[in-house]
Amino acid sequence: MLQEFKDFIAKGNVMDMAVGIIIGAAFTAIVGSLVSDLINPIISLFLGGVDFSGLYVLLGSGEYASIAAAEEAGAAVFAYGRFIMAVINFLIIAWVVFMLVKAVNRAKPEAEVEEAPAADPGPSELDILIEIRDSLKNK
After folding, report:
1. Is residue 78 classed as helix, strand or coil in its secondary structure?
2. Which residue spans traverse the membrane (predicted)?
3. CB 32 within 8 A of CB 89
4. What is the C-alpha end-to-end distance of the chain, expressed in Å?
5. How many other CB atoms are found less than 10 A from the CB of residue 31?
6. Which of the 8 DSSP states describes residue 48?
7. Full DSSP string of 22-35
8. Crossing angle, helix 80-107 and helix 12-33, to 10 degrees?
9. Buried (b) or exposed (e) across 51-80, using 16+ Cβ within 10 A?
10. Hey, where are the domains in the chain?
């Protein structure tokens, strides 16, 4: 059983997946910083200083200065600003991953495609009809 586990771990696919997950986690931190430190301030500038992550609707009574104060007090909040930020983060991450994959695919040498010999298509519909006609004549 231990040997099977070693064989499983040593397979290329498992190691590739592990490396991908580790790189992905590190990449997420970089993109998160890109969004929060660079993109959000630019978006906020165009929208007159609005910080999406602080947008919320209070579900219930009371008044709070910020979403953090409302959450600290235990009030129910509908934090739609955080959702907007999550969508923006996703779109930016998806775009960056798309660009990376595109760049990697361009950098890869194109694999030579070996042409497989054409398979025998068999008799055509016309050949079959002629054969049927000939067999009916012989009866």
Report:
1. strand
2. 17-35, 42-59, 79-101
3. yes
4. 69
5. 19
6. T
7. HHHHHHHHHHHHII
8. 130
9. ebeebbeeeeeeeeeebeebeeeebebebe
10. 2-109
pLDDT at 111: 57
* pLDDT digit string (tens) for the chain, length 139 residues: 888 877 776 776 777 788 888 888 888 888 778 777 887 788 778 877 766 778 888 888 888 888 888 888 888 889 898 898 888 878 877 887 788 788 888 887 765 445 566 677 788 888 888 888 888 888 6
Confidence (pLDDT) at 27? 80
Distance CA 21, CA 88 (A): 22
* 3 state SS of 113: coil
Q: What's residue 114's pLDDT? A: 54
List CB contacts of 81: < 8 A, sequence separation 6 or more: 51, 52, 53, 54, 55, 56, 67
CA pair distance 128, 12, nearest whole angstrom: 50
In the DSSP assignment, the letter for residue 53 is G
